[in-house]
Design a protein that fits this description.
By secondary structure, the chain is of the alpha/beta class. Helices cover 28% and strands 23% of the residues. The strands form four sheets. The chain has an eight-stranded mixed beta sheet with strand order 4-1-5-6-7-8-11-12. Strands 13-14-15 form a three-stranded parallel beta sheet, with helices on both faces. It has a two-stranded antiparallel ribbon with strand order 2-3. The protein binds aspartic acid (ASP).
Length: 320
């Protein structure tokens, strides 16, 4: 179950404006021959049962503001949308506004709202690239992710949530006519990612914080520094590599696992044995982007560090 930050949520208002997210097609396999703006915002909310579980008793208000294909967006709808946003955001019990919108002009509406709404509360826009009738529609997950962002205490201003990414109104642009991740923030990259009901803001963590054992790193002779090695999980892996390191006195092992931190079964049992013998194990992903999400058998390195940086952190951890 997706868990929202309940601390901040009192009431979330969802304004429906149409788009593919509310679109319907005659066939489930049809991703292009559909009519946008057919289903009500209430219908979209009802199609995501986890949404209500996630809100944990907090109120959700759905309001149909328009029912448009956003290629036909007009200034009158913009004004009405901004007025309703301002109305709701001024209510003390309203923590955020979520807007369902077509993808075609989403970036324009986002920027308009960013420039006209005077608020610190989040206004989270979301959308879909496939109609609601598709075999695997993307709208429900996008709506759920938008709700997660709306409830996040660090969310501010107008944000766009699509395909697990959070974009600012300023940077976001539709860059693809068909792909589910149709939006990009260009050079600046997304503001964050929604993973398993949590927002991972880019640059949100204080990476510059001095390690608790920094002093030791400057004074303990390096010959006494703990030996920390990096290993990769891969096809045809051999446990003797770990056994040899443990026998030779390794103190820490950073395992670069496959995908979301999975480890070849041969290596996993050797690592468990190593742990039982007092070796500290940290897990990272071999993937160049993202970071391990959710529970893993071994402790994941913090901040999504790559293997060699995770080795530095573990070395410092052990230096104390
Ligand atoms: N034409 C649709 C719209 O912008 C496209 C979409 O929502 O993806 O409303």
């Amino acid at each position: 179950m997706q868990v929202l930050n309940a601390k901040k949520c009192q009431k979330i208002v969802v304004l429906g404006t149409g788009g593919t997210i509310a679109g319907t097609a005659a066939s489930a396999s049809d991703h292009t021959g559909y009519t946008a703006g057919q289903l009500s915002v209430q219908h979209l909310l009802d199609a995501v049962p986890a949404l209500h579980d996630s809100l944990q008793g907090h109120d959700l208000v759905g309001e149909q503001l328009a029912q448009l294909d956003s290629k036909d967006m007009d200034h009158a709808t913009w004004q009405a949308l901004a007025q309703r946003c301002a109305h709701w955001l001024a209510q003390e019990e309203v923590d955020a506004v979520v807007i369902t919108h077509g993808t075609d002009t989403l970036e324009e509406t986002a920027w308009f709202l960013q420039k006209v709404l005077d608020t610190n509360k989040p206004v989270v826009m979301t959308c879909a690239m496939r109609p609601a009738t598709a075999l695997a529609p993307d709208g429900p997950q996008n709506l759920l992710d938008a709700m997660v962002v709306a409830c996040d205490p660090l969310a501010r201003g107008v944000l766009v949530v699509c395909a697990g990414q959070v974009h600012s109104a300023r940077a976001v642009q539709k860059v693809h006519p068909y792909r589910l991740d149709a939006f990009s923030s260009g050079e600046s990259g997304p503001r964050g990612f929604v993973e398993q009901g949590q927002v991972r803001w880019q640059g949100g963590a204080d990476l510059s914080q001095v390690h608790a054992h920094a002093r030791a790193a400057l004074s303990v002779p390096v010959a006494q520094w703990p030996w920390v090695a990096v290993l990769h999980s891969h096809a045809g892996a051999d446990a003797r590599q770990i056994q040899a390191l443990v026998a030779a006195g390794v103190k820490g092992l950073v395992m670069a696992g496959t995908g979301n931190g999975t480890v070849h079964e041969t290596l996993a049992s050797a690592l468990l044995q190593a742990q039982a013998q007092g070796v500290v194990v940290r897990l990272v992903s071999r993937c160049a982007q993202g970071q391990i999400v959710g529970q893993t058998v071994f402790t994941a390195a913090p901040l999504g560090l790559n293997a060699v940086k995770a080795r530095v952190s573990l070395l410092l951890d052990l230096l104390g």
